[in-house]
Amino acid sequence: MRAPGVTSVNGDSGALIRLFHVSKRFGKKTALTDISLDVAPNEFLFVTGPSGAGKSTLLRLLYLAESTTEGQILIDGVNLARVQRRGIPSLRRKFGIVFQDYKLIPSKTVFDNVALVLEARGVRQRLIQKKVGAMLRMVEMGDRGDALPPSLSGGEQQRVAVARAVIGDPKIILADEPTGSLDAAAAEAIFGLLRHFHQRGATVIVATHDIELIKASQERVICLEGGRLQPLPELGARTSHAPRN
Ligand SMILES: Nc1ncnc2c1ncn2[C@@H]1O[C@H](COP(=O)(O)OP(=O)(O)OP(=O)(O)O)[C@@H](O)[C@H]1O
Ligand SMILES: [Mg+2]
To answer: Which domains does the chain have, with CATH numbers?
Structure first.
């Protein structure tokens, strides 16, 4: 039951992701304060801001790795406050997630790291072979399927992590500092892949400190500072996009 007088977020805005006065506290620590934000289907959004600003927390709220303290979040018309434990797997299938530290399983091959997503969904082995093979070729790791992640460079591991994130055809790709551990060339390759999957229809949200990559693109940017949405700082040469809310 909603408290009297509290307005509820509704799902008819056309947004794929809606945050409505969202706050998140960890004990006495406030990580996010009063965030309202709409993300349209097939938007590409950068979330920037200094360390500790709340970028990762914001992403984690979207896939219910954390729950909000106040406010509401709607994902694809689903109010996260109403998602019960048994509903979490189907919510998570909407997301492909890329982390700064790749989070591949070191004891499993490149192929198996990507295949696991499809195996968990009961996809038939023959189809898995075909899809994972094609995906690894797409991220230019087609000849490294038998390799173990620790034998790969950071850029190669992150390309595998992108493959794993997108193999299930998620509506939403979340990337938390995906290039934070990579050199400029490897970072550009990862961004190229994220743009490719964006063009194929995914909604993409990237949390990053990488001002150079933001400047080199024309996507919408929001800035967090101390857990609050801030007006955009001057980005220099870039044609800035005003936040839409
Ligand atoms: N599980 C947690 N328990 C307690 N505090 C937390 C937790 N997660 C995040 N915080 C705090 O919330 C604030 C925001 O953290 P968050 O990781 O979202 O920042 P960030 O913008 O992603 O920073 P960075 O750029 O360093 O990754 C920080 O002060 C952090 O210490
Ligand atoms: Mg972070």
So the answer is: 42-53+83-230 (3.40.50.300)
